[in-house]
Specification:
about 40% helix; globular; two-stranded antiparallel ribbon; 8-stranded parallel beta barrel; alpha/beta
Length: about 300
């Protein structure tokens, strides 16, 4: 199977000051999808400009024609399924059906406390995520939804006319644990991972490769238990969080070697970060563009 190459564009620049140019350039370069982070702020970018994901994607939809657009990833940390569904249906309409929702349980970063709450425990994050995904699935496929859950409610929530994409826009479910993988197998059209975070600082690329092999195997098991073939799901690796760090973006050959190994494992899409100078995502823009234009053909 051919390997898709996508990018993630962080929303750190004003639209009028270069924020729009990366999206149009991503389409010109032939990327399959251009994603953005759905955070209120993020790590080292917290004290600088940072814009909302869904308005940014809406503006990007108006500036592009073919490239798919999406989040990596949206989470329950500050989202509610009822309002999120309305915004996603609107975005799917504006884009002409080019939206993918990357969705995950969220973590313990800045988003976890931005609304004034205490960070949720891992168990509560998993519980909320399960209810969040199930309710969002209904909201995006049914005209009217009423739901009384442990964490989320909907009272005759109307979502007419629904998504352009039928029966709804695709979910790319980020998960590595058993409960999240079960959700990916049941609701996902794609599965997303960043690798094993425990290996990022002290692990080796070889250890990371084997950890990802294990994740893919557990995904296949979860799909089998749900009565699905794992081949029905796209398998997406968001790069930059494995022990390889920025090495794959140092040259075209380095990237093709890196991508080929993960293609052989069974990944169908790799996502690389759009270069940001003086940051953890710094990279040579000329090399980055060469990778975008030439690597897919070499990977078959």
């Amino acid at each position: 199977m051919s390997l898709r190459l996508s990018t993630v564009i962080l929303p750190y620049r004003r639209w009028s000051e270069g924020g729009s140019s990366a999206w149009t350039r991503a389409e010109e370069l032939g990327f399959h999808t251009a994603y953005t982070y759905d955070h209120l702020s993020w790590r080292s970018f917290r004290d600088g400009p940072w814009f909302g994901a869904l308005p940014t994607l809406t503006a990007a939809a108006a500036r592009t024609e073919r490239i798919r657009l999406g989040t990596l990833v949206t989470s329950p940390n500050f989202r509610h399924p009822v309002t999120l569904a309305k915004e996603l249906i609107s975005l799917d309409d504006i884009s002409g059906g080019r939206v993918t929702l990357g969705i995950g349980a969220g973590g313990t970063g800045f988003d976890a406390t931005a609304l004034g709450q205490e960070p949720w425990t891992p168990r509560e994050r998993a519980d909320r995520f399960a209810e969040f995904v199930a309710l969002l699935d209904r909201l995006l496929t049914e005209d009217t939804v009423t739901h009384e859950g442990e964490f989320y409610s909907a009272g005759e929530a109307r979502n007419i006319p629904g998504c352009v994409q039928r029966p709804r826009l695709p979910f790319a479910v980020a998960a590595t644990g058993p409960r999240g993988l079960k959700l990916a197998a049941r609701y996902g059209q794609a599965w997303v991972t960043t690798g094993d975070p425990k290996l990022f600082e002290t692990g080796t690329p070889e250890q990371s490769h084997e950890a990802l092999r294990g994740q893919l195997a557990r995904l296949a098991d979860a799909c089998a238990a749900a009565g699905r073939d794992v081949s029905e799901l796209d398998r997406v690796l968001l790069t930059g969080f494995t022990p390889d760090r920025d090495r794959p973006l140092r040259s075209l050959d380095a990237f093709v070697d890196f991508a080929g190994r993960y293609q052989e494992l069974g990944f169908t899409e790799l996502v690389i970060h759009w270069p940001i100078p003086d940051s953890v995502f710094a990279a040579d823009e000329k090399v980055f563009e060469r990778i975008a234009m030439e690597a897919p053909a070499q990977l078959g």
